[in-house]
């Protein structure tokens, strides 16, 4: 059955595999095998564990839900009203990363450090309480990024609607046709697809055992995140962004997404989406 609200459509498949399914009636997107939201590259058992953990620890993570942080330079309170994590303080014009508050000038080469969690190699020798604190710290690292990308998706959906409204206004004023401006809608749609994949890389990384495979995954995750934020920054400034530059960024972001899925997705049926 479709998990969409008040939808009674029934789906049938020759093989009950994990694959992206879209209900043609209510437009709900879900995993055919487990019925949760589509979750590549994370597999069904892992995403169920993650969602259960998030529900159990929701009170602990409530403080993360705030939309405001202080500028790391002038310390004025800033509200995040867009999906992009490349922030510019309206007061002092300082550019920084919303997630780690690092200076954006050097952040381009440090995405690997921003997105990955640094394990404490000596934690096994610490007290039970210390190990519990470390476990919570690790969870909050991944949960904060998971939740942040979820919020960015909602904010960028609002940006897409604003783009469509601006395009309608331009068409009405004879400033081109919808075909002339379609690339902006395509860019915003691709951004949503890439960020959705990125959001689900964090449960995958949380449960991944330390080692070369995790290091490679976190490297590719950071590469994807960097290109997504570049694309988001350009879309939010679409009026001043060169069309060729934006289309090139679309291509780069999608290639990063597909590279990560091809290298780490066990179920190849996901690759068509």
Automatic annotation (TrEMBL):
Residues 1-118, 74-114 form the RING-type domain. Residues 221-263 form a coiled coil. One of its GO terms (molecular function) is ubiquitin protein ligase activity. GO terms for biological process: protein ubiquitination. Residues 31-45 form the CCHC-type domain. Its EC number is 2.3.2.31. SMART domains: IBR. It is found in: Nucleus. It comes from the Eukaryota. Gene3D superfamilies: 1.20.120.1750. It catalyses: [E2 ubiquitin-conjugating enzyme]-S-ubiquitinyl-L-cysteine + [acceptor protein]-L-lysine = [E2 ubiquitin-conjugating enzyme]-L-cysteine + [acceptor protein]-N(6)-ubiquitinyl-L-lysine. It is an enzyme of class 2 (transferase). Keywords: Coiled coil, Metal-binding, Nucleus, Repeat, Transferase, Ubl conjugation pathway, Zinc, Zinc-finger. GO terms for cellular component: nucleus. InterPro entries: Ariadne, BRcat_RBR_TRIAD1, E3_UB_ligase_RBR, IBR_dom, Rcat_RBR_TRIAD1, TRIAD_supradom, Znf_CCHC, Znf_RING. It holds the Pfam family IBR_1. Belongs to the RBR family. Ariadne subfamily. This is RBR-type E3 ubiquitin transferase. It comes from Lygus hesperus (Western plant bug). The gene is ari-2_1.
